[in-house]
Task: structure prediction
Amino acid sequence: MIAFVVRTLGLVLFAASFVALVADGVKSLSADAWTFTPLGATWGAASPGSLAAFTSVAKAATPAYLWEAVAAAFLAAPTFAVGGLCGVALLVAGAKRRRGR
Result:
């Protein structure tokens, strides 16, 4: 049952990242330049309160150099890339195991 939920979440996340990729592609075609939406902008548009809470907790819990290196880079990454990688990871984690013969 848990594997089904994990696979379903992975599929939904992967599908959402594909939608983000298409949206970024349309934006790039209209601008005649490569553009992408950072994860921080997408998260801020979807739920600004949770982004602010995450930012304040992460800054308080981690050293400044770690925040700049990891979390800031994570929030600046393209939404479709982060979503796609997380979706694939969940799909692999929830995959049915083959039994040896």
Observations:
- Residues 38-77 form one domain.
- The chain has two domains: 1-35+79-95, 38-77.
- The chain is about 80% helix and 0% strand.
- The CA atoms of residues 37 and 87 lie 18 Å apart.
